Amino acid sequence: MIAMIVDDEKHVRDAIKLLVPWTTFGIDTVLEAQDGAEAVEMLRQHRPQLVFTDMMMPLMNGMELMAWLSEHLPSAKTIVISGHDEFDLVRHAIKHGGVDYILKPIDAEQLVETTQKTVALIRKEQDERRQQQSLNMEMNQIKPVYWDTIWSNLVSEPKTYEKHAKEIAEEYGLSPDVTSCRLAVLSLDTISGKLKDRFWSQWDLVFFSLMNVCNEVLTMDRGQRIGVAFRFWNSENEIVLLLFRELERSEAVFLHIQECIVNTFQSSMDIGVSGVHPFPDKLKEAYAEAKQALRRRNLLARQKRIHEYDDRPPLSAGVLSMSEYAEAIRLAVRSGSEEQIRKSVGEWIDAVRRLPSINTEQLELWWHEYNTLKTRWMSEWFGDGPPPQRTQDDAPFHVPMDDEGRLSIDMWEQQLVRSLTELSKHMLKSQRQDSNVMFEIAKYIRNHYHQDITLQEIANHFYLSREYISRKFKQEFGENLSDYLSGIRIDKAKLLLLNPHLRIAQVAAMVGYEDEKYFSKVFKKTVGVSPNEYRKGRES
């Protein structure tokens, strides 16, 4: 902390320097000036937090200095030390923020007490400023999320508008005369692959930057908003553009937004636009129309553009069903040959390529067909056994896009071939496992877990030595045969314990334990709680 002493009498400055225990108060620098004019130069450079000043000085007196301080350095605290106690001087000191007015000759105890009080005040205000700055930073971060949430909720539930009408009017200048709107949806799924790769770890930054571009266009030169852009929290990758003024030139506004996005990100994006609707009552309907406009756009078109909603049903070029090619694909997968899989998928893709248009709705229908077929095949090949590992096909559907953000049929073909090849490998592995004696033993255990089976009984049943079974089973499954059996029994016991009408002894017997106490001991060791405690925990 820096302090300054301003007095035209050197012995007064020396006395103040001597009497105040500066280091105790955390003051490491004490500056001196012999009049107000000299003090101002030093104040500009060093900006001390604490100033001691006389009132009567040449060139610039204390009254003028305090007036300068209150205008240029208002955070500094001033202690007046003067030989004059005129009312006007005291009043002036108070008016310009003086903390105290000490009369000469200086009372040492009063000086130290006043300095201590003033330093405490300085620190308190510094803490408050830091807290306020931190709060302001937090608010600046939270505010966009807050408004994104408000607008998203309004699109889903327009009836909540009255609750936020005053707040929205203050923030966006939305007056009661606004009764109509158009809504557009800008989907980040249509952004270029290059941009996705560049910002994949900073996806929130992409949203923030895009909304800044959009909101800049939606704020006119004179500062009046014609609309608002916000992140739609009910969908993963959407920005909603709500236009509530200048509706007659909405197409030009949306085209301008698209141009600005291209100039900023070197990537164009498709925008779906609704018709004109009453505001705010029909926001939900407007959003549905904008989404429909996007979903029905022709994904084969080379140029991205503004897609306005049309309530007429889309023209159909004939229904193309994946099921027509399903048998050839199924046989190729069963063959285990990647070449055959690629050939059968290629026949389907060739039919797709001949279509004059493809939209998102059609792609989603094919995706549903594909997953239905795959589920049926898996049921045929794997039965009730363990399913293959989770694949990317289990994820939500996304339109396969190339680096320019356009539908890529080639990429889709590669995804299908890759997925079906993986499925074929799982099928072949499953077939090998079925013929493997260790998996036969595991199957035998799963079917007879409730009986008192032993390693010797299993060895006799499969005509193998106990040692061979123990060694090979551990190699195949990573655990001892006895642990494998216990795991199955405990899992079955957990299910049976959900039935409140079964006693613990009955559950034990049903999973292969004749001794209830031994069953409880094994259960607690495996699960961490006793069977009774487990049952009570599930009932609560």
From TrEMBL:
Response regulatory domain: residues covered: 2-119
Superkingdom of the source species: Bacteria
Keyword Cytoplasm: no
Keyword vocabulary terms for this entry: DNA-binding, Phosphoprotein, Transcription, Transcription regulation
Chain positions with 4-aspartylphosphate modification: 54
Keyword Secreted: no
Residue ranges of domain HTH araC/xylS-type in the record: 439-537
Gene Ontology MF: a single term: sequence-specific DNA binding
Pfam families cross-referenced by the UniProt entry: HTH_18, Response_reg
Gene Ontology biological process terms, A to Z: phosphorelay signal transduction system
SUPFAM superfamilies in the record: CheY-like, Homeodomain-like
Name used for this protein in its record: Response regulator
Taxonomic placement: Bacteria, Bacillati, Bacillota, Bacilli, Bacillales
